[in-house]
Every structure is written in C-alpha cells, then in structure tokens.
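User: Structure please.
Assistant: Input sequence and predicted structure:
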Amino acid sequence: MILDFPYIRHRGQYMPLVFLTISRGEKAISTHALVDAGATVSLFHKDVAEWLGIDISAGLELQMEAAVSRFHIHLHQVRLMVGTKSFDAEVGFSTGYRGRFNIIGRQGFFEQFSVTYDDRRRRLRLET
C-alpha cells in the first residue's frame, strides 16, 4: 500500500502532515499530525486524550525537550489508523505541550511504514 500526502501550507510554510484516526476502546478522533523524523516519541495534545477518555497522569511519565521548552508527557497505548492501515502504538500526551501540531515520531510509526519526504514536490509518501 502506498499513501501520498501533499504537504499542507501553514503560516507560509509547507508541512508534512498526515490525517489519521487515533482510538482507544470504543472512542476515536480524527486529526492531523506532523510526521517528524527528528522526534523519537509521538505526542498528542491533551484535548485528544480527554476526547478518548484517557487519564493522562496514569501513564508512564517522561521529560521531553523541544527546541525552546521542556515538558512532561505520559505514555499510553492507543490504536492509530492511517489510510486503511491500523496498528497499536505507544504515544505521549501532555498538558504542558504548546506546539501547534500533534507529532508523529519514529517509535511505533516508522516501523510500520517506509517514510519518504519529498520537499521539492511537497509530498510525503508512506509505503507498507
């Protein structure tokens, strides 16, 4: 399976965003996330956890560092679906993360796909 995503223009820059569904139990929410090869762990905003009924503080706590900030995340098992591919992944949720986008990191995601960034054509390709 090959999935091609055009980069999405945001504040004058083109970003490799994917549309995905994240679920836990019977609850699911669809959202965009930035595919970031520089991130180890995937990170979602606290409102996603709240929608899914996840008690953020119940997960394993880690301290994260971004370019200009430090914050804590809590890891939880969820199910991700990109296109028709669905898989379990451990992702982080944070009440202190202030970034614009949910982040898809390498762990749990890059094992599922061969990921190709094509900045010249402004496209992201995911292959299984």
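The chain has one domain: 2-127.
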